[in-house]
Design a protein that fits this description.
Strand content: 5-15%
Shape: globular
Number of helices: 9
Radius of gyration: 16 Å
Largest sheet: 6 strands, parallel
Number of strands: 6
Bound molecules: zinc ion
Distance between the termini: 40 Å
Length: about 210
């Protein structure tokens, strides 16, 4: 069984991770769509165009290497009012590499982000894998997990299943993960328009995760 919606007990066990956005920020109207693993030619453009149709804003947790290869797409993301998050330089797995290497890879990605903006909104661990060192590290602030995992990257057509299971759980403060990657596009191209239309019908406003001063 695929877990779309993170159970509350998990959030309680790991309170230092950000699972949803607080009430003072979401103001009972904002939801937060996030796109991991880009920027990706064509696919990120599809996402930006869909978001623009609804005047929706979102956050892109970019892989540094993909930013290096696609600087024009990064500029489009920023100029259209979306925010950028750090997803490591090379999409490392925190359970498989020593922490010093992992932390270095986060810094590399952040330096790439700083070519465009002051700093990222925060960090999201690839694969959602968090090691103990990563969990307790105080230099890496704003560790973003999610409320709802769309699971768009799964092989096969899960679009209807995703829509049926995720939309009823969308409420103010919810953070949703999608992927602007080649691997996810077969599902993403169907579910993203459905999520956006649903938000409009419920007067929920997709908004970008905020930068911190
Ligand atoms: Zn990822």
């Amino acid at each position: 069984m695929f877990i779309y919606h993170i159970p509350n007990f998990v959030k309680k066990i790991f309170p230092k991770l950000i699972w949803e956005v607080s009430a003072e920020i979401h103001q009972d109207k904002y939801v937060y769509f996030t796109f991991d693993d880009g920027p990706t030619p064509e696919i990120t453009k599809f996402v930006l165009d869909e978001l623009n149709k609804y005047q929706a804003k979102a956050t892109f947790f970019c892989i540094g290497k993909n930013m290096l290869e696609n600087p024009d797409i990064v500029r489009d993301i920023i100029s259209q009012g979306h925010s950028i998050g750090n997803h490591t330089m090379n999409h490392l797995n925190a359970w498989k590499v020593p922490f010093y290497r992992y932390a270095e890879n986060i810094d590399q990605c952040e330096n790439e982000i700083k070519q465009f903006i002051k700093a990222s909104v925060g960090f999201r661990p690839p694969y959602g894998r968090v090691s103990k060192s990563l969990y307790v590290d105080k230099l890496i602030t704003h560790k973003y997990m999610w409320t709802i995992l769309a699971g768009d990257y799964r092989k096969g057509n899960y679009s209807k299943h995703i829509i049926d299971h995720c939309l009823p759980n969308l409420r103010p403060g919810t953070i949703v993960i999608f992927h602007d990657s080649v691997k996810s596009f077969h599902n993403l191209k169907v579910i993203l328009p459905a999520f956006l239309a649903y938000c409009q019908s419920k007067q929920l406003i997709p908004s970008a995760l905020p930068y911190h001063d």
